[in-house]
Amino acid sequence: MPNLNLPPGTLQLDPEATHPALTAFGFSPAGFEEVALKNPEESRDLIARWPVVWLNVDGLGDEEILRSIQAIFGIHPLAMADVTDTTQRAKVEQYAENTFLVVPMPKTRGDLTRFESEQLSMYLTERAVISFQASAPGDCLDVIRERIRTGKGRVRTSNAAYLAYALIDTVIDAYFPLVSDMGDRLETLEELAIRGRQTFIEAGGTHFAYLPCLNDSEPGMAMLRSLIGRELAGWLPQT
Known about the structure:
This protein has about 240 residues and is α+β, with helices and mostly antiparallel strands. The protein is built from seven helices and seven strands. It has helices spanning about 45-50, 65-75, 75-85, 140-150, 160-175, 175-200, 220-230, and strands spanning about 20-30, 30-35, 50-60, 90-95, 100-110, 115-125, 130-135. The chain has a seven-stranded mixed β-sheet with strand order 2-1-3-7-6-5-4, with helices on both faces. β5 and β6 form a beta hairpin. The longest helix is centred in the C-terminal third of the chain and has 28 residues, at about 175-200. The radius of gyration is 22 Å and the shape is elongated.
């Protein structure tokens, strides 16, 4: 839980947080540059050479590095404080000409049997997107990285605002395989219950009950919509 007694703009760093790993892209329609940065100051070279820059920060465990990024890109102190408060809900906030966005990003365990959501914070300026993730490298954004490398799609020919849109769109798309897998597993449970009923009766049972497949009824779908809507609050239109 965030400490409500701290002054505005205070960074709330977890003592066990991962040390930041900085990766960056600079790109234009004609080409791109991909760099693993040793320190935030190296991003100034990318800003000078490329019209659009994407800096991704994996890990929030070093205040000096975070403050340096804040100074280089002009990140508002309140937005920077929200980056380190990883209890944020999805939101969009405007700071003069810049925009701060938070969206929960799914992180799976490989086989889709279990997933968690991680806070993805993004600060959008005229020429840059700075994204922050609390954990070590590993996310669902490789599709955007590959588009930048190959020049496919509109990312390289568009501005920083389009890059931010593409990142958010990719995060939302990452939820659909999870929802589909959840539905398949619920259907499997129902099929097992149907077969189990016959076995139960043949064994002399008299009062058989099971939970119907949740994605085969309006209340069940309403529950699923509520769960997904809660995670993506602020991004999906309310119906």
